Amino acid sequence: MLILSGGTGTPKLLQGLKELLDNFTVLVNTGEDLWLNNLYVSPDVDTVLYTLSDLINEETWYGVRGDTFYTHEQLKKLGVDEFLRIGDKDRALKIQKTLLLNRGYKLSEAIEVQRKALGVKYKVLPMTDDRVETKILANIDGRKELLKFHDFWIKRKGEVEVLDVIYENSLYAKPPEEFYKLSFDKVIIGPSNPITSIFPILSIEDIKKEIMKKKVLAVSPFIGSSPISGPAGKLMKAKGYESSAVGVYQCYKDFLDILVIDEKDKELAREIECEVYTTNILMKSLEDKIRLAKEILELL
């Protein structure tokens, strides 16, 4: 089983899946990775690692539950521009990853070291060891500007007109070597933002080619025209897709076999040309996550 993941919706589903499965591989978006004051930050990868090791802060779906922020606050007092709020324990993981990368480790190799150290039994792979960066083409005061994702979402709070989203360097990127060794026949695309969490993964040609050969199920991150979280609606429209479960189908229609949508959207099923399953897709409790995961596994 291969699961494509970003940093919020899909980790919730992973909490349910790991209660039911002993083995799966998570292929994680790295389009939002960045260097921040010489610290390598891989937000979606770290969220998946923390989720699978039961450390995740479920209030933010970023960082470690119960973390402190002494270093972050002190850096701010010293005048360091650290726009991401990084906790102390979380920073330790990022420092180790940075040290490993600086010693010549590939990103996938650094993640493997950390996966084992955290006691995670499931395989976690970055979508690539190459540098692929998601950028937002925005209209800023009548000028087109290409923004890094965190400039768009953290610094500007997503409050700009989005013209397009690009995946810089994806044409030249390859998946990590370990991806070619995987044996899987089914793929789950979690309820992550299609444009900035899943499309970066699929922008790598060798990954998309392999996925098109498999049975693929996706979970919609929309209820009605509203995303469950994040800026997915605005970004879907910028890429020419409807902001709804129908738009999610349009994103994945080249290879999608089953789409799971919310029961409130059941009337949209007639506009979707693959198998559609309707259920409650909100995951507020562990019981919700296990229930949805069980339904997905039965469908597959």
How would you explain this protein's 3D organization?
- The protein has 300 residues and is α/β, with parallel strands linked by helices.
- It is 36% helix and 21% strand.
- The strands form 4 sheets. It has a 7-stranded parallel β-sheet with strand order 5-2-1-9-10-13-14, with helices on both faces. Strands 7-6-8 form a 3-stranded antiparallel β-sheet. Strands 3-4 form a two-stranded antiparallel sheet.
- The longest helix has 15 residues, at 88-102.
- The protein is globular and about 60 Å long.
- It starts with a strand and ends with a helix.
What's the topology here?
Layout: E1 2-5, H1 9-17, E2 25-28, E3 34-36, E4 39-41, H2 43-52, H3 70-77, H4 88-102, H5 107-117, E5 123-126, E6 133-140, E7 143-148, H6 149-155, E8 161-168, H7 177-180, E9 186-189, H8 194-202, H9 205-211, E10 215-219, E11 222-223, E12 226-227, H10 232-238, H11 245-252, E13 258-262, E14 275-279, H12 286-299
Parallel strand pairs: 1-2, 1-9, 2-5, 9-10, 10-13, 13-14
Antiparallel strand pairs: 3-4, 6-7, 6-8, 11-12
Helix pairs in contact: 1-2, 1-12, 4-5
Which range best describes the helical content: under 10%, 10-25%, 25-40%, 40-55%, 55-70% or over 70%? 25-40%
Structural class category: alpha/beta
> How many strands appear in the DSSP assignment?
14
Shape: globular
Beta-sheet strand percentage?
15-25%
End-to-end Cα distance, whole Å, is 10 Å
Strand order of the largest sheet: 5-2-1-9-10-13-14
Number of helices: 12
The helix/strand order is: EHEEEHHHHEEEHEHEHHEEEHHEEH
Give a short account of the largest sheet.
7 strands, parallel
Tell me the Rg in angstroms. Answer: 19 Å
Uncertain spans = none
- What is the residue-averaged pLDDT? 95
